[in-house]
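REQUEST ID: PR-0412
SUBMITTED BY: lab tech R.K.
PRIORITY: routine
TASK: structure prediction, single protein chain
INPUT:
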Amino acid sequence: MEEYALIMRHEDGTRIASPEQMEIWMKMTMDWIGGIAAQNKFVSGTGLLFDDAKVIRHGMVTNGPFGEIKETIGGLIVVKAESVEEAVEFAKGCPVLGGDGNSMEVRRIAKRDETH
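STATUS: complete
OUTPUT:
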């Protein structure tokens, strides 16, 4: 069994949800994660904040990323799956996909002995 990162991408980082909308979204997300955990396939997860964020490039550190950029990463979870197809099925249930233009990226996590 492999581990996969399910990365939540938001197309428009300038949209701010109301506290009521955030509460509904968080409940939906916790229910989604709970369904994966009930299958004993949830490994870990976290949301990402913009405060105190930095972008590092060769020889330069800047503030950011900022919501004005086209796409932001809002968080990720790590799941155990038999295949990328199973991980994709988990990702398809993510409430983030209800937002216009939002997407999920599924990436297999490298094992310690893998170099590529």
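NOTES: Helices lie at 19-38, 84-92.
REVIEWED BY: pending
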